Every structure is written in structure tokens, then in C-alpha cells.
TrEMBL record:
GO terms for molecular function: phospholipase activity. This is C20G8.02-like WWE domain-containing protein. It comes from the Eukaryota. InterPro entries: PA-PLA1, WWE_C20G8.02. The lineage of its organism: Eukaryota, Fungi, Fungi incertae sedis, Mucoromycota, Mucoromycotina. One of its GO terms (cellular component) is cytoplasm.
Length: 200
């Protein structure tokens, strides 16, 4: 897992930098597809979680963040403001025509799935951030590998994905694990450093 932050010192937690994304697959509702399925007598398919996420532009990101911290309900987005985001529902839909409605996320933590970084669900990100503030991994000194360790890893035949922690690495930080609640029950987070954590 990866956190987006702007770290200036190790005494205080780095401020969160939120980035807004919207899904482009697996719509929440697609009225045209629903009507077509009803007309053909086809059963409605179960929605799978979105895998493809697109960031909003810098301009839209600023507008969405401002609205999130105020009473503004909807924000016009994208080129020519042809779409709008419902801040409370976290949905994006076309303004002038009927079309699919997609999920929107305010992203502060990301998880890698099938080699692609996607924004965490906001409820999960909130729990991860609460654990981050509790365990304060940003105060931990950064340990640089020695020359011998670097040579050893370069000559090693082991294959290890960058996102897969070694067992001995996990054990160093195991006391700082944060158990997740709700739909994530049974999973926990181990904080590696100021910007990385393992979801186990």
C-alpha cells in the first residue's frame, strides 16, 4: 500500500494530499443497459468492484476538495463541465444526457491489484490513516541497506515482488499492526515507513 503525502519533517505527521479519481468500468447504474436487459428479459448482472480508475484534472481536484470541505453538493467536472460529481454519494454522471453513473473516490491511500495502483475504498483508507497516526511510522528512522546487503540482493536468485514483504521485514514492525474493522475484518495493516504499509 502507498500513501500520498507531503513530508517535511519527522516530528509531525505529513499532511495528507487527497487526489480524486473516478471509475471508468463497472458502473453503479447504467439506465440504458438496464432498459435493454429488461426488454430482452435478461437477468441483471451482479456488479463487480471497479478496476480502472482515472484521476481528475488538477482544476477538478481542487474544486472537489473544496466542495468536500464545505456544504457544496455537486461539482461540474471534466472538459466543458459535461459531467458532475455528487460529493455526498461519491458518484459522477453526465449532465446533459442519460448515461452510466460511476463511483468516485477521494484517495489518500492506494493498494496494488494485479500490478496496478488503485485508490483504497475510503472507509478502509480512514482506518489505515487512523492507525498511521496512532503508530507514527513517520518518526521511525530510515534504514539504508549496507553495501553488502545491496550486493547480496543483486546476486540473489530469489524473485520477490516489490509489494511482497519478506517475513523478517514484517516481524520487525509486527507490534505496530492495525487491525481493520467492518467489511475488512480479519485483515490488518503493518506500517513499513512514512509512506508505505502492508495489507495482510
Amino acid at each position: 500500500m502507498l500513501q500520498i503525502s507531503d513530508q517535511t519533517d519527522t516530528l509531525t505527521p505529513p499532511p495528507l494530499v487527497a487526489h480524486w479519481f473516478h471509475a471508468i468500468d463497472s458502473p453503479i447504474v447504467d439506465p440504458i443497459a438496464l432498459r435493454k436487459a429488461k426488454r430482452l428479459g435478461v437477468a441483471e448482472q451482479t456488479r463487480s468492484p471497479p478496476k480502472n480508475w482515472v484521476p481528475f484534472s488538477k482544476r477538478d481536484n481542487v474544486a472537489l476538495e473544496k466542495a468536500c470541505n464545505s456544504d457544496i453538493q455537486t461539482v461540474p467536472v471534466n472538459e466543458d463541465h459535461l459531467f458532475e460529481v455528487n460529493i455526498k454519494k461519491r458518484e459522477i454522471n453526465p449532465v446533459y444526457w442519460e448515461g452510466p453513473i460511476f463511483e468516485v473516490r477521494r484517495a489518500t491511500w492506494f493498494v496494488q491489484i494485479d500490478g496496478t495502483w488503485i485508490p483504497c475504498e475510503e472507509k478502509m483508507a480512514k482506518q489505515i490513516e487512523e492507525g498511521y497516526l496512532k503508530h507514527k511510522p513517520y518518526k521511525r528512522p530510515t534504514i539504508q541497506p549496507t553495501e553488502k546487503e545491496t550486493e547480496g540482493s543483486a546476486n540473489s536468485t530469489d524473485t520477490l515482488d516489490d509489494t511482497t514483504p519478506r517475513k523478517d521485514s514484517i516481524e520487525v514492525y509486527i507490534e505496530e499492526k492495525e487491525y481493520l474493522l467492518g467489511p475488512y475484518l480479519g485483515q490488518y495493516v503493518v506500517y513499513k515507513d512514512s509512506a508505505h504499509a502492508w495489507l495482510l
